[in-house]
Design goal:
Layout: H1 7-20, H2 26-55, H3 58-79, H4 83-87
The chain binds phosphoribosyl ATP.
InterPro entries: HisE, PRib-ATP_PPHydrolase-like
EC number: 3.6.1.31
Catalytic activity: 1-(5-phospho-beta-D-ribosyl)-ATP + H2O = 1-(5-phospho-beta-D-ribosyl)-5'-AMP + diphosphate + H(+)
Length: about 90
């Protein structure tokens, strides 16, 4: 079971993963796929958030939202963005 984590903790973990490139990491694979591929995944997950929110359970919507957050963070790392670069617009 996954340990529960915050947006900041996940970002720190993914940043470290990108730096150390551990064997078998899905994140490393996604980063190597590049911005175009990561972008398509973001669009796919965003659609799944919409569908789950409108037609499925709140639980399933929450899970899709977590996946969208993950793929947005992968894109942030691919672009070299820090948390502050995004937070300044919130
Ligand atoms: N939070 C996530 C996370 N959310 C979503 N995903 C990925 O996004 C996929 C969900 O998308 P789909 O439902 O479309 O699944 P899929 O059809 O298998 O997707 P594709 O592989 O075909 O793109 C999952 O299978 C994961 O590959 C995540 N992958 C990793 N993490 C966390 O990121 C950290 C580092 O992970 P690794 O790089 O794999 O070690 C760990 O803490 C993980 O818990």
């Amino acid at each position: 079971m996954r340990v529960s984590k915050s947006f900041e903790k996940l970002f720190a973990q993914l940043t470290e993963t990108a730096r150390t490139r551990p064997e078998g990491s899905g994140t490393v694979k996604r980063l190597d796929g590049g911005v175009h591929t990561i972008g398509k995944k973001i669009v796919e997950e965003a659609a799944e958030v919409w569908m789950a929110s409108e037609f499925q359970s709140r639980e399933e919507a929450a899970e899709e939202m977590s996946q969208l957050i993950y793929h947005v963070q992968v894109m942030m790392i691919a672009l070299g963005l820090e948390l502050e670069d995004v937070y300044r617009y919130l």
